[in-house]
Amino acid sequence: MKRHSLLLIITSALAMPVQADMLGFTLDAGIWNVDSSGSLSDTTKDEMQNFELGSKGTGVFSLAFEHPIPVIPNFMLRTNDLSAEDTTRLTRNFTYDDVEYSANSDVNVEFNIQSSDFVFYYEVFDNDVLSFDFGLNLKYLDGDIRFDSKDSNASSKDHFKGYVPMLYGAAQVGIPATRFSVYGDMNVLSIGDHTLQDYQAGVAFGLVESTPVDIRLKGGYRRFSLELDDLEGVYTDWTFDGLYLGVQADF
């Protein structure tokens, strides 16, 4: 009985670190240089006006939690603020929120979206050579649109928000005999005339590889596009895209 109890204690002690390695957190933080451009309307697609709002740096943060329970998905939260503002000279008459802006007039445009991703995913592969995840992303969008004429007191604004379910997939491939890897993830939705795409691709370098933490430097390209056909009265064909740099820590 004593030998059996001792064997059970030793076996449990050896198994505990293995189980602990299967629990982990991944923290990402980076800067995304976002170019913002597209077209907007609150009536029909045919009335959409084109706008170029330039580029702006924004922070991107994510936190993922992974566990060893097969039937329960892993979870990742990612958030970033997509704010763009610039002055545009209209090429034709444009009406928004029943306010008319004349052709050749200067209009200050603000298009701000707070984007939050609630991703529930499963790992199909997870090793140094290949990792692949798939799942569902509940993307929450909270957006504001505002127009202010520089030539008159004309002003209009709009607001939209809601959850958008999107398919999620991510992959990473290690380059043999190096600390480099290539990776990418994609979130897609296409329902009727609504189409959303949010994807990124890049290269990572293993700066620190140790038992308590792995630290990687990351860089690449990200693009978020949304085509909305009468979402709470908003019509858009808009793109946020650009290069980004960041750091990732796996605990």
Strand line-up across the major sheet:
1-2-3-6-7-8-9-10-11-12
Query: If helices are DSSP runs of H or I spanning 4 or more residues, what is the number of helices?
Result: 1
Order of helices and strands: HEEEEEEEEEEEE
Question: How much strand content do the residues show?
Answer: over 45%
- The residue-averaged pLDDT reads 87
Uncertain spans? 1-21
What is the CA-based Rg, rounded? 23 Å
Number of strand elements? 12
What is the overall shape? elongated
- Helical amount among residues, as a percent range? under 10%
SSE layout:
Layout lengths: L1 H20 L2 E18 L7 E18 L7 E16 L4 E3 L2 E3 L4 E21 L3 E20 L5 E20 L5 E12 L2 E16 L4 E18 L2 E17 L1
Antiparallel strand pairs: 1-2, 1-12, 2-3, 3-6, 4-5, 6-7, 7-8, 8-9, 9-10, 10-11, 11-12
Descriptive notes:
- The chain is mainly β and 251 residues long.
- Helix content is 8%, strand content 73%.
- It is elongated.
- The two termini are 39 Å apart.
- The N terminus is likely disordered.
Structure summarized in a few sentences:
The chain is mainly beta and 251 residues long. The chain has one helix spanning 2-21, and strands at 24-41, 49-66, 74-89, 94-96, 99-101, 106-126, 130-149, 155-174, 180-191, 194-209, 214-231, 234-250.
Keywords:
disordered N terminus; ten-stranded antiparallel β-barrel; 251 residues; mainly beta; two-stranded antiparallel ribbon; 8% helix; elongated
